[in-house]
TrEMBL record:
Chain sites annotated for binding Mg(2+) 1: 29-30, 76
Domain named tRNAHis guanylyltransferase catalytic: residues: 7-135
EC number: 2.7.7.79
Reactions that this protein is recorded to catalyse: a 5'-end ribonucleotide-tRNA(His) + GTP + ATP + H2O = a 5'-end phospho-guanosine-ribonucleotide-tRNA(His) + AMP + 2 diphosphate + H(+)
Keyword tRNA processing attributed: yes
Cofactor: Mg(2+)
Organism: Hydnum rufescens UP504
Cofactor note: Binds 2 magnesium ions per subunit.
Sites where the protein binds Mg(2+) 2: 29, 76
Record protein name field: tRNA(His) guanylyltransferase
Amino acid sequence: MAGTRFAYVRSYEQPDPLLPNTFLVVRVDGHGFHRFSDTHGFEKPNDMRALELMNHAAKDVMEAYPDIVLAFGESDEFSFMLHKSCTLFNRRHSKILTSITSHFTSAYVFHWSAHFPNTRLEYPPSFDGRVVVYPTEREVKDYFAWRQADTHINNLYNTTFWALVHRGGLSTAEAHSRLKGTVSKNKHEILFSQFGINYNVLPAIYRKGSVLLRGETTTTPGAARDGQEGSAEGGMLLIKRVKYTP
Ligand SMILES: Nc1nc2c(ncn2[C@@H]2O[C@H](COP(=O)(O)OP(=O)(O)OP(=O)(O)O)[C@@H](O)[C@H]2O)c(=O)[nH]1
Ligand SMILES: [Mg+2]
């Protein structure tokens, strides 16, 4: 193409480098997963198969991109942190974002049948993605703390909501209004006094999300459910709490 009269169009492609020497966080999020989870019969409020499929896709992404040192997942989202000095694709924004989002999506589809052996994939799921650039460790730690706080808030709400519906016989509208204006303590009380559920002993993967760390010490992916440590191949760590050592 070079040298033709058409070649000038190339100059319309703009460079899009991400700021050097900053932490990069790529977050992918399932597109329309409210519908997707309904169509595919995900259990409410948490479907272990779906969470493990997300973790599996994230592990594949980490194996494909060694610059990712930490990942955190909950619900239909996963955040990947690339280290500060990463030079992947010369730090081109669109290249990094689309490659990771695309790899995650195809890995999700690729491993679908291993996690949902009896559920046909009805249509192609997709994920959106964004890159956020953080200048210091403080923002990065706060970022992951924010996502984990979100996991906790959503899970406590959803667990109480579905207990009221499934076990308390309330309609979804009634459960909504029962929970309106309640704080965390009230939800713990409803769960315990009405349904005998001690929220704090529910699987950690539901309450705190999944963490994958690149490192020597590892725990088995399933261990996040009961917080036990063990060893696994692949150099991946799944723990119940965000631990980040720069
Ligand atoms: N039943 C069930 N649903 C889940 C589970 N994990 C995620 N979901 C669904 O996925 C949704 C994720 O939230 P959002 O990302 O805000 O909703 P979304 O429909 O994907 O919308 P967009 O991300 O804006 O496209 C939840 O609201 C649930 O409906 C699960 O384990 N069980
Ligand atoms: Mg979503």
